[in-house]
Amino acid sequence: MSAWRKSSYSPVNDCVEVRQGVGIRDSKAPATHLPVSGQAWSAFLSVVKAPQN
Q1: pLDDT tens-digit map of 1-53
Q2: Burial class of 4 by CB neighbour count within 10 A (0 to 12, 13 to 18, 19+)
Q3: pTM for the whole thing?
Q4: Please, which residues have CB within 8 angstroms of residue 1's CB and are 6 or more apart in sequence?
Q5: Cβ count near 22 (within 10 Å)
Q6: C-alpha atoms less than 13 angstroms from C-alpha of 53 in its C-beta half-sphere
Q7: Who has the most CB within 10 Å: 2, 14, 16, 38?
Q8: Which of 30, 29, 36 is closest to 4 using CA atoms?
């Protein structure tokens, strides 16, 4: 199983972490997480990576 990862842009203690096949969580509340489907995650990344006009 994959480990939780955080963005290299996140400050040390304030971050959102992701884990493949599990979802996303707040590093300050690691006991809970928000499940996210692969399709939803891909859609999110497409929007985030889209060029800004």
Answers
A1: 578 888 777 766 778 888 888 889 888 888 889 999 989 988 988 998 998 87
A2: middle
A3: 0.63
A4: 21
A5: 15
A6: 1
A7: 16
A8: 30
